[in-house]
Amino acid sequence: MRVVSGIQPTGNLHLGNYLGAIKNWVKMQEEAECFFFLADLHAITVTNDPATLSANTREMAAALIASGIDPDKSTIFNQARVSGHTELAWMLFCSTPLGWLDRMTQFKEKSGKHKQRASMGLYSYPVLQAADVLIYQATHVPVGDDQKQHLELAREIASKFNHDTGQDVFTLPEAFINGPAARVMSLRDGTAKMSKSDPSDLSRINLSDSNDDISKKIKKARTDAELLPSEMEGLENRPEVRNLINIYAAIADEEPQTILSQYAGQGFGTFKPALIDLVITTLSPIRERFIALKSDEKMLDTILGNGARKAQNEAQKTVEFSYKALGLLRNKLYC
After folding, report:
1. What is the mean pLDDT of residues 176-195?
2. With contact defined as beta carbons under 8 Å apart, do 78 and 304 qualify?
3. Among 76, 138, 158, 268, which lies 20 to 30 A Cα-Cα from 300?
4. Three-state SS string across 38-56, please?
């Protein structure tokens, strides 16, 4: 089993990133060969400050390692260090029908009312995303609900390329399911995902937050005056309360119903302090290690460089196979 997944180095990782993806990545590296990359090429589909992007890439690497991703067990690298990603993406661009990209919902959401001002990179990044996983012959890709459409597109692109060339160039990746990926919502609005772009810092718990900050944010998290019910059905139309129960359950590796059974009939004066203790106990060691790691740029560059060399060796096999399948002549001197 070979698992491939990436995350954009946008900086300021929060609890939603940790519970929604990274916590499961840590488990995956014990079960499969894993390639985890920082998607800096995807980051430039929108305007970026170069110095900030470089800093964010190193910080994201530090955050992943602090969270439990082990460079000795997993291959960690940033996308831009492996030229095969863009080489393969061009070959896939030339094979992917325009109509397939027109149906992608995330471009419509991200471009909003200014579609004509959006970059070609933003429009076509699902093809680069397909190249990201196909280049390593990934057998499985961890995906949340918002990425299922992209994995299906990657499978369609791979299948079409194989059919068009008459060669089995690509493995068709499947979704990787390793326990439920938590969908963490805003502490201020239980109907919106926790996000670093939210103008209110009280809406999220950052991995860099102090214990006092974590305590303050959970105390201020929006709830209601009712007691906790004994069944999940009792949380209908109570999205903020459901979110806090789900956060507790995800950190504790329990079912939400189990948490409700424990706190049924009690108020938030009891539940919130327990949640605060759990979050602090979980995040404090991650924060401390993250702070220590992010200041060591030389070590982080060494880890990313070593990972990139391993990734490049694997990627080049697929790139050369793809060139050959298309009838493109290559001078081995430059391979």
Report:
1. 83
2. yes
3. 138
4. ECHHHHCCCCCCHHHHHHH
- Please report which residue ranges of the chain form alpha helices under DSSP H: 15-17, 23-28, 40-43, 50-67, 84-93, 98-102, 105-111, 120-134, 148-165, 211-220, 239-252, 256-263, 268-294, 297-326
What span, in angstroms and rounded, lies between the C-alpha atoms of 272 and 194? 18
CB 243 within 8 A of CB 187: yes
Phi and psi angles of residue 119, each rounded to the nearest 5 degrees, phi first: -80, 160
Whether the Cβ atoms of residue 315 and residue 84 lie closer than 8 Å to each other: yes
Give 211's DSSP letter.
Answer: H
- In this structure, what is the dihedral angle of CA atoms 308, 314, 315, 316, given to the nearest 10 degrees? 110
| Tens digit of each residue's pLDDT (9 = 90 or more) over 4-60 | 999 999 877 899 999 988 999 999 999 999 999 999 999 998 888 999 999 999 999
Catalytic residues: 110, 193, 196
Rounded Cα–Cα distance for residues 138 and 35 (Å): 9
Q: Which of 263, 204, 225 is nearest to 11 (CA)?
A: 204
Task: From 302, 319, 335, select the one nearest 77 (Cα to Cα).
Answer: 302
CA distances, 86 to each of 38, 91, 129, 215, 247 (Å): 14, 9, 10, 44, 37
Using only the alpha carbons of the chain, give its radius of gyration: 21
| DSSP string for residues in 136-201 | TT-SEEE--GGGHHHHHHHHHHHHHHHHHHTS------EEE-SSPPP-PBPSS-TTSB--TTSS-G
- Comparing CA positions, the residue from 164, 141, 167, 165 lying closest to residue 153 is 141
Tell me whether residue 265 is exposed, middle or buried, using C-beta atoms within 10 angstroms of its C-beta: 0 to 12, 13 to 18, 19 or more.
exposed
